[in-house]
């Protein structure tokens, strides 16, 4: 899934107001034009495609378990809510790792952390597929989330530091597209491979494929030109920065939006498979996995979200994304396969419109504190996936899909309220 995390060119172009506390990072003078990686150069193409593979591998690994959750329930006797832990533990530990990884990258560098995280995450996915026990699988998936946190925590910062401002949006767009494509192939590929070689073989194959992606990224991504390592991890400094950002009234509604967006999105996909496996649909695992082709709408939406923001503005784009999500949740309620597919497509498109808008507003508001603000946004984003994704299982077990849709709709309405606050004129002045 996911993953994705757009930052507009303005993130690094002009100094903007920051929270009234010590900056999360020491202010840095923008590098001379010659230091930027400019669009149209071989280096720009290498970075853009390198981050396509980074996004693909990361989000394929995170979300590959969604289509085989019913298989986990059958293999290990887990409940639907229990089987969702294979994803919730990954995203929960990933959320924690994001905070730590952002600080670690200041000391050891962005590129090395990204590549190491990819390789370790892929290896742990292989270990999860080979685990003979449910608890062993969950442990491997938790460690996988801890490892993969190094990618989203650092990817957007690396790009913002290295790519010239006017070309940053396109590079971010390819990273987001790779993330969406990875989420798509991880889900659909797992479902189809499960029909051929079992879910265990599918997880091993996917892990090996993502190791290849890590090798490709290693060949493509250049060393940082505009990054200077800092000695020590400075945890006290980071804690002060995060505390300051959490008190910023312009940022807190954006953090809430991140929580809501991924919570609703993951919940709908988590339990759609359980619903379609039951009467009146009675679909098999391979067919159910094709539902995840709706992520194609996310790939398209993420690639046009920048153009929507430019034409209609951030407020209209963000509110429009939430309107699509609410309409999509409502469409999934009737027992009609066509309506369910249309509803999931609407939720996906709305999510991939709203998420880039919300994440693009973080950097300009935070200014020099953008790396810490981004890590907090991602913390809320993945905690939403972990918490709401598992709580949705309780709704499913006690009230069926009607309860899941009602809960997702209520949470989406809350997110719409947060979007209205985040895009109010006073907040827009800083974004």
How is the topology of this model organized?
Elements: H1 42-63, H2 69-76, H3 80-83, H4 85-108, H5 110-130, H6 134-148, H7 150-162, H8 168-220, H9 235-246, H10 252-277, H11 285-289, H12 295-331, H13 337-366, H14 370-422, H15 425-428
Helix pairs in contact: 1-5, 1-7, 1-8, 4-6, 4-7, 4-14, 5-6, 5-7, 5-8, 7-14, 8-12, 10-13, 10-14, 12-13, 12-14, 13-14
Radius of gyration using CA atoms only:
20 Å
CATH superfamily: MFS general substrate transporter like domains
The CATH architecture assignment turns out to be Up-down Bundle
CATH class: Mainly Alpha
**Number of spatially distinct domains:** 1
Structural class estimated from helices and strands: mainly alpha
**What's the number of helices?**
15
GO cellular component, one term: plasma membrane
Protein name: MFS transporter
Main location: membrane
Organism: Methylopila jiangsuensis
Description:
The protein has one domain (35-226, 246-428): Growth Hormone, Chain: A (Up-down Bundle), CATH 1.20.1250.20. It has helices at residues 42-63, 69-76, 80-83, 85-108, 110-130, 134-148, 150-162, 168-220, 235-246, 252-277, 285-289, 295-331, 337-366, 370-422, 425-428. Helix content is 76%, strand content 0%. It is mostly helical and 431 residues long. The protein is built from 15 helices and no strands.
